[in-house]
C-alpha cells in the first residue's frame, strides 16, 4: 500500500532515546580458513570457534532465502561454518592469554595472517582488537577450460571497548573491511585473450569494496535490576561503503529494543530508524538521477504470555519506507508465535505466522554477489507472509533434533543473470559480452523443508547434519536462477586425548540453472534469445588437523575441496580447485 504521509509518533519514540544500536552486519567479520580451538585468547566479540555444535532455536524471522553459494570470488572453501558448543557437554574453564597470532601459507600463492588481542578484563572496562589478512594470487580454470588470473584479498580490522556500569554495559566498536577482486569470469564458450579484451568491457578490471564505521550499544545487564524493571538494548550504527568503480553509500541506523514484565504478560517493543544514501548508481526509478535517498522506519510491538510449558506471542511488524523517487509505502504483517512442550526438554512444538521486509541497500547486495553490476539499484523485497512450524527436542542428553516446514509469499525477489549484446548496421557491427551480472525480478511462493540432527558421542567426538529442501512456485520466470533445489551440510569433529584435533566438513548443493540473455539490435529485426546453462550439483569436502605442541605453540593444516570438484559460484565464475593452507598458532 502506498501513502503520502507518515506517522511521527514512532520517530518521536526513537529520538527521545539518546543512543541506539545498529543491527550488525553478519558478513563483516566472519572467521574463516579453519575450525580451531587451540589456546584461544579471551577475546570478547571475536567470533571464537568452539568445538561441539548445537542445534539452534528455530528462527521465526524471514525465511532463509539466500544464495547458498558463498559470495567469496575464490577460495570460498575456506569458509567453514562455525558451530556453537552444545549445552550438554561442558568443558572446564581454562586460563587463557591475552592474544592469539595465526600465520599461514597455501597454494595459489595464498598468505594468511590473523591477530586477536584482548586486554585482561577489569571490573569496569574491557578492550580488544582483531586484524586479519587473507589473499590469493593464482589462476583458476573456468568451466569452459579457460585458465585465468583470479586474485583476491580480504582485510579486516576491528577495535572494541566496553564500559561496565551498575545496571548496564556500554560497548563501542570501530571496524574497517577491505575486499579486493577482479572480474575474471565470463559465460559461454572459451575465448582467446584478444577476443576477451575486445568484447568484454570489464575484462580483468579490478574492484575494491571498502567499509568502515562505528557501533554504539547500551544494554541493560541481565539480573541487574528487579524483574519488573524495563530492560533495554539501545544503539547507533554508522557505516561508509565505497567501491573502486565510484559508488558510495552512507548508512545510519538507530535501534531501540524494550522489554518489560507486566502483571499477566511481558511487553516487547523493537523499533529502528534507518537513513540510507547511495551515489553513482543507476537509479531504476529516475534514470536521470544517479543517487538514492531512503528512510526506513520499523516498529514491532508484541505481548508475550508464558506458562509452565507453553508460550504465546501476539504482535505485529510495521515498516514505513520513504523514498525520494517514490510515494511512501507501509507494510504491516502479523507476528504471532506459539510454543508448547508436552514433554519438557524432550519435545517442543512451535509455529509462527509473520512477514518481513528486506531493505536491499548497496552494501548488502555487494556482499551477496560481488560480481553484480557495480552500479546496481535493487528493489526492496517484501515477505508478504511467512507460515512456519515444526518440532525440536532431544532424543537423549547427547542427541538433539529439529524438523520444520515453512511456506512464504515473496514479492520482488531478485535473481541474477548474465547477458550479451550484438549490434548490426550497414556500416559496422560489434559484440559486447557482459561479465557482471544483472538482475530480474519475480514474485514467488517458497516451500522449505528443514531437518537437523546433532549427536555428541563423547566429549571428544561430535556429529552434526543439517539439510534443506526448496520448492519454488514462480509467477513469471521459468526458473529461480542460481537457486538450488536442496543443500546438505555435514560436520564431524574429533578431539584426541592428546594434542591432535580433526575436523571434517562436507556440503552438497543441488543443481541450479543460470540464465544468459543475448540481445541484438539491427535496422531490420531487433530481438533476443535466452540460453539456460545448467550448473551441476556441488560436492565440497574439507578437512583440517591441528597439533598443539605446547601451551603457546600449535600447528594447523587445512585441506579444501579435496573432492577435486570443479564448480561455479556464479554464472561464469568458478571456484578454486583443491587447495591447502598450513600454518602456526602462537598464543601470548
Query: Which percent bin holds the helix content?
Result: under 10%
- Taken together, the total number of domains comes to 1
Q: Using the 3D structure, state the CATH architecture.
A: Beta Barrel
How many H/I helices? 3
Low-confidence stretches: 1-93
- Strand content range: over 45%
Main beta-sheet strand count, sense and barrel state: 22 strands, antiparallel, barrel
Instruction: Give me the CATH fold name.
Output: Maltoporin, Chain A
In angstroms, what separates the terminal alpha carbons?
58 Å
* Structural class category: mainly beta
Shape: globular
Any overview of this molecule?
By secondary structure, the protein is mainly beta. The chain has a single domain (17-224, 307-587), classed as TonB-dependent receptor, beta-barrel domain (Maltoporin, Chain A, Beta Barrel), CATH 2.40.170.20. The protein is 4% helix and 56% strand. The protein contains 3 helices and 31 strands. The strands form 3 sheets. The chain has a 22-stranded antiparallel beta barrel. The longest helix has 7 residues, at 9-15.
